[in-house]
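Anyone opening a protein record will find just a pair of labelled lines. A complete record is shown below as an example:
=====
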Amino acid sequence: MENREDILKKIEKLLALAGNNPNENEAIAAALKAQEMMAKYNIEFADVQGSEVKTEIVRERYTPKKSSHYVSKWKYSLAQIIAKNFCCKTYSLGRDAIVFYGYEKDAKVALQVFGFLFETGNRLADKYYRRCKKEGRETKGILNTYLTGFCAGIKEVLDKQCVALMVIVPKEVEESFNDYSKGFRQISNKLNTANDSRAYRDGKQEGREAATARGIEG
């Protein structure tokens, strides 16, 4: 069994990989794996060498690319899941852009993880849609159903780690965002889904896999 010092070194290596890697997919996988290991071994960010507390609150913006089967509304649910797990608040600009509001390091990681999972979800949903069409299945609402499951799978994985790490949005960020967001209006994120439990189940499984960062061991 590995001792605590060896585990800390692995986590430090993963965080370094996440912060200094030109390959975006590898960087995201490393960040998710570091969070997973910290939850598993009950390690806090303060225990990891080189971890810093950022005092500057920033806004990091993501504007999605559009595709042939582009489904936009699911991004609001995904953004809420990611923000909660990376100590941020989130809101949208218009109907497209998603913004993460928090300390600089938290907001930047949230932005990267969101972008990776959003693009992965859309790619997998497109693939699933084409497969259903080829099989002669009803496709109306299938994308939304699959992506609702995809979000549920991500939430299941990340929320377990969030609880284990006792992740909360810092009080200063909450208070700053409450002032900043005065006058914001609510927009609907309701999705028209199909009555297809298989699509939801398949989406949930692939959401779990996307959030687990398999194959990254540090």
User: Anything to note?
Assistant: The helical segments are 4-19, 24-40, 74-85, 104-135, 142-165, 171-180, 197-212. The mean pLDDT is 82.
